[in-house]
Amino acid sequence: MLNDEEDMPHPNAAPDQHQVTHNSRVRALALNAMLLFPWFFVWLVATLPAIRDGRVDFRAHYAVGYMVRSGLGHEIYDYSAQKRFQDELVSQAKLALPFVRPAYQPLLFAPFSFLPFRQAYFAFYVVNLAVLALCFQLLRPYMAGLARIRSYLPAVMFLFFPIAAALIQGQDSIIFLTLLAGALACIQLDREYLAGVLVAFGLFKFQLVIPIALLFLAWRRWRFSTAFACTAALLAAISIWIAGLAQSVHYLTSMIQMGSSLNFSSGSPIPVNQMANLHGAFYGMLGRSPYVLPLTIASSAVIMIYASFRRPHGVNALLIAIPVSVAVSYHLFIHDMCILLIPIVLVLNRIAEEWTTKHQYGLMRMASAVLLFGAPMCLLFAMDRFWIASLPLLAFAFATLVPQRSDFPLCDR
Known about the structure:
This protein has helices at residues 4-7, 17-46, 48-52, 58-69, 79-89, 106-109, 117-139, 144-149, 153-157, 161-169, 173-188, 192-201, 206-218, 222-243, 245-261, 278-286, 292-308, 316-328, 341-354, 360-374, 390-401. By secondary structure, the chain is mostly helical.
């Protein structure tokens, strides 16, 4: 029979390394939560008047979610129907916020339509916070270098301004960010089929997903591309089932017309000067010049073709594909820039691990990543010239496209 004293650790014995690591992680997560949630709460309080009056993007999602739940999916692309339901369910407004997503996407918002608008908004806000916490956990292995410098740096990364904008507006951009973070983890684990499925589920942001899918196809990532194509076909079938074939065709034609006329279905102009991409940059510099569209198409084609010759390995594929997709996207608003957090984290974490920027492209990557992280804040001071934020984005995309000796490898697991 053993003596009880023999089972007890010696007072001077070193603590178990696993327990120390676990405790340090818990403390780091607690510190990150203490930094993050007050920030998001302050933003929420600051926008309460807009929420009260229904002047947030969640207005459109809530209305079409109700329409799909009520069996009126065939009317979700009818502007007059959108206007009627938004006025009845949310608040009276001169113009409706147009719904420009594939028809499968309202299934996400249909459960929230059981609640009154304000309660539904706060419920979705909480869901977005939960999804953001999941995203944090998915990206945490890629922030190990940053955490070793300062334990609060991972939380600082999540103070990226587009994330706050997405939370305030009740947008689905945080869900898209988390899908890409999940795809990153799947690629890390050599499960590219699952990565392709996750990226395809993000087709409600098709202007960002399609360039990513095209690059993976050009890079001959066949498992990713096969899974993506199968999932996209399934989502297309669900969308046609919800909206009907005629409305689905109408949706496609209206997207083309909206892109060429630069007007929503309501007739209100699309604020292209508030887009931080190639389209916004050319429009901001040239105005309504007829050269804006051909220059945007030509520049986007050049960037895509150049990127297709890179042949990146592992998670480096998303490091390149995400900033390129944002740069060449035809429509982009500040909340859509959430996904840039992934390549920014990969770049800064790698530099933090190496503690060197001797190579000129390493220095360019670091500088452009830091500048891009702060660039969206210019929306607070120059909303009508937000296209200026496209300049650090283009610099960052160029820096990731230029190969260097030690490119970004795997993460700490």
